[in-house]
Amino acid sequence: MIDELTKHAAYHGPGWRPRTVTLASEIAADTGIWSANRVDSEYKRLKAVLLYCPGPEVNDIKQPNAVQHVARINTELIAGEFHRLAEVYRSFGVSVHFIQPDGLQPEKRLDKYNLMFGRDLFFNTREGAVIARMGSTIRAGEEKFAAHALAQLSMPINRTIGGAGLFEGADALWLDPMTVVFGLGPRSNRDGLTQLREIMRPQGVEVLDVELPAGTQHLLGILQIVDEKLAMVRTQIASKRLIDILKGKGIAIIDVAESEQVQLRQGMNTVTLGP
Length: 275
What we know:
The protein is α/β, with parallel strands linked by helices. It is about 25% helix and about 20% strand. The protein has seven helices and eleven strands. It has a three-stranded mixed β-sheet with strand order 3-4-5, sandwiched between helices. It has a three-stranded mixed β-sheet with strand order 6-7-8, sandwiched between helices. The longest helix has 17 residues, at about 75-90. The chain is globular, with a radius of gyration of 21 Å. The protein starts with a helix and ends in a 12-residue tail after the last helix. The model has no long low-confidence stretch (mean pLDDT about 95).
């Protein structure tokens, strides 16, 4: 009976085709199995973005501080801002996609108030996305909306951070195709760092860690890579280790002063459309 079964491809007989290429190769080949969007840079030409425009759920917020907001949100104004943002992306040839949360909780009012900060929810690599595990209880569960949206876009999920690991995507930045820098702080811990290193090692990528200064939310709040060898840095608060890493990589630094625009108005939250 066993001999009879081995004549069929389903039992590894003739017609069975083993999968021998890497996930990165499958993505790069653009065969239609996966989206061809692979990432190993912060500055190369931007091709696609994933956004979430806050909806009527923000009207439920009575105490902004309880949901990590600094003030009430005007629903109409923010919708207009997201519309204009999407149009700017499209004008530069960037495909714009939106997180659609309704499919995951059709009978329940959305109670996630920070989904607009999509950069935090995952980190993209040459072999698919790493789904975050958010650092605060108020944001727990946002990750599933990003995973759902990415799956709908045929983006492979490389791994979801688990265990006691904490990791938010805005705490990891590509310095070059072989190096990622990871910001350790309240939102991304050493367990998350260890897991990201395990993910990136098979891709031949080194993950370097730096401590974040108090009062900063994420690594991208003090560092932005804007070209192959050029970075914007808040040098007055960035650690010596971070500065040394950048200089060791031959990356020139644009010094960003500690102004109100940077400290209070998130002036470092930039998006690089191209080199």
